[in-house]
Design a protein that fits this description.
Number of strands: 12
Shape: globular
Order of helices and strands: HHEHHEEEHEHHHHHHHHHHEEEEEEE
Helix content: 25-40%
Strand order of the largest sheet: 9-8-11-12
Strand content: 5-15%
Structural class: alpha+beta
Oligomer: single chain
Radius of gyration: 23 Å
Number of helices: 15
């Protein structure tokens, strides 16, 4: 049954809200991450490849002198760019690095932060399916860190730099002059400032809207990177807390001709809740709740200007079920944007500019919502948009470069085009294919260079534009689809084994519960309990050998130190032969 939570439907809204709370309390906000048997060929064969390509796309957006940008690897002019960034600022600071925003070379703190946070939220929800198939230099060797974190680190490194002093977070590097010449970034770096090169202009200072989402990205990176590099995680946390303080001192919207937010409280809410998850400091949690209440529903869709859904997912993980009510209203509205119009039939359609971006953002939010409350309609909605992008559409084509049938070949991207000329030469194809890039997508009406529908044309800076925020939700949605429908390819080095982590019983519980798991053959097993902040609080099994069959393990609600743990959500994670499954359970004392 579809959600019936529109404000005009007061009775239905109240009933639905009560149902949400009941579901959350009775099943403990269980995440449906069980990798069951599936006959879905696309899920088993294509989604892992789509996850790999769309993650790797971020390596083609890297900016800086020694950034291993793979799309520039064979560029005849060189591979480094914009090493002068920051010299134009009064602090004469280093602002090199980070991600180019789009097919041009402007660098926005907002889109770096939003994209990093969205990517990390996918990893936050479903960490087990993200592979480690390469290192940051693309040597072809794994480095013990999931590839998604390798890519996000380029953004968080930059966010740390963008805090140029205790009172200032830089908002943007580069300006309109960047758009005037169709050349690669190494070539443009050697051009005068008036032509987008040299010591590019620096725009400061960011207000709470950008400070909040930057805080969220850095704090969540601190939480997720700590098992791999505690020193870097601490650096991210210190920067997050400092930037959060800047945001408190600068409430309001950052004026910018390129990206303009409509509220600042959503970013600060996200920043506060992620800081709480890392530090456990109650003031952060209280602030996040206060901003969430002030915000109400967004009446828009998840994007760089509207982060409500991501922060509310984290609040729900912490047991704050009230956040689900406002989120549910917005998720319900996504169904109302499903189009039946020619040229965008089957698409969750919000805007001509980056239509696929909005559709996938809505789908990712619906997938996260489904993972918490189990609404099957949300599951189907999320899958439909992923399938649309992968090729199930009226065009019978993929919208991701290098993936599927008849993918785009002419994305609007200067580095991919690979030529040092001052004209378009639009009759030629890009020298360096921009594999993994999601294009803007079809339009309902003519907008700028776009006619209704979709045409694969490099001059179409709307329909064939690519940006770092376009790909972000798609990466998380691929991971969700793998977890939901099964994955045989995400970790090909590990021998396949079928196993299942069952629901604990009772759930909710106080304080004893039984955890059940089964395996089809003998294997080593690790079973851990994590708190909502992602900290391991109890190891029930630490690598013991178990025979094939069904097994039970009891937990008494105590930590490894014998302390009684407080009420709240806890994650059970089962590790078998390098593969994981997780469930959530609710301790109510």
């Amino acid at each position: 049954m579809r959600l019936e939570l529109l404000i005009s439907k007061g009775a239905q809204m109240y009933q639905r809200q009560q149902s949400i709370v009941l579901v959350c309390l009775t099943i403990g906000l269980m995440v449906f991450l069980l990798a069951g048997m599936s006959t879905n060929a696309r899920a088993q064969e294509s989604y892992p490849e789509l996850l790999r390509l769309t993650t790797r796309f971020y390596g083609a957006q890297r900016c800086g002198a020694d950034q291993h940008n793979w799309v520039l690897a064979d560029n005849p002019v060189g591979t480094g760019c914009h090493w002068y960034d920051g010299l134009a600022h009064s602090t004469d600071t280093d602002l090199s690095g980070g991600w180019h925003d789009a097919g041009d070379f402007l660098k926005f703190t907002l889109t770096n932060a939003y994209s990093a946070y969205t990517l990390l939220k996918g990893y936050d929800a479903i960490p087990s399916v993200y592979p480690d198939q390469d290192d940051p230099d693309y040597s072809g060797q794994s480095n013990g860190i999931p590839d998604i974190l390798d890519e996000v680190r380029y953004a968080t490194d930059y966010l740390i730099k963008a805090r140029v002093d205790e009172n200032t977070l830089v908002a943007r590097v580069g300006g309109d002059q960047d758009h005037d010449f169709w050349v690669t970034s190494p070539y443009q770096t050697s051009m005068p400032v008036s032509e987008g090169g040299g010591e590019r202009p620096v725009y400061a200072a960011a207000n709470a809207d950008i400070c909040g989402i930057s805080t969220a990205a850095l704090a969540l990176m601190a939480l997720k990177y700590e098992p791999f590099d505690a020193v870097y995680a601490a650096e991210c946390l210190a920067a997050a807390e400092s930037i959060y303080s800047i945001g408190l001192a600068r409430p309001g919207i950052t004026a910018d001709n390129f990206y303009s937010d409509n509220t600042w409280r959503d970013g600060m809410m996200c920043g506060a809740v992620e800081l709480f998850r890392v530090t456990g400091e109650q003031d952060y949690f209280d602030a996040a709740i206060a901003w969430e209440v002030q915000l109400g529903p967004s009446y828009w869709v998840l994007d760089w200007a509207s982060h409500h859904d991501l922060g509310r997912h984290s609040l729900a993980l912490l047991g704050h079920t009230a956040a689900l009510s406002n989120w549910a209203i917005d998720v319900d509205s996504y169904f109302d944007h499903l189009s039946t119009a020619t040229s965008v039939n089957g698409l969750i359609y919000f805007s001509d500019w980056g239509s696929l971006r909005y559709a996938l953002n809505a789908a990712f939010s619906a997938a996260l919502y489904y993972s918490l409350v189990g609404d099957e309609d949300c599951r189907d909605l999320a899958l439909s948009q992923l399938e649309y992008v992968a090729g199930d559409n009226e065009y019978n084509r993929s919208f991701v470069v290098g993936f599927g049938v008849n993918p785009p070949g002419l994305p609007h991207h200067k580095n991919s085009y690979g030529r040092q000329v001052f004209d378009w030469e639009l009759d030629e194809e890009p020298l360096f294919p921009l594999l993994g890039a999601l294009v803007g997508g079809p339009t309902l009406e003519a907008t700028g260079p776009s006619s209704p529908g979709y045409a694969d044309e490099i001059e179409d800076y709307i329909g064939n534009e690519v940006t770092v925020d376009y790909n972000a939700a798609l990466v998380g949605l691929c991971a969700w689809a793998i977890s939901e429908f099964g994955d045989t390819a995400a970790n090909p080095a590990s021998p396949s084994i079928s196993f299942h982590l069952g629901a604990n019983y009772p759930n909710p519980f106080n304080p004893h519960t039984r955890i059940t798991f089964s395996m089809t053959r003998n294997a080593q097993v690790r079973l851990d309990i994590f708190d909502p902040a992602g900290h391991r609080v109890r190891t029930l099994l630490s690598g013991q050998n178990y025979q094939a069959g069904t097994h039970h393990v009891d937990w008494n609600g105590l930590s490894d130190r014998g302390q009684a743990l407080p009420s709240g959500l806890y994650l059970t994670r089962l590790l078998v032969n390098g593969q994981t499954q997780s469930n959530r359970m609710l301790l109510l004392r």
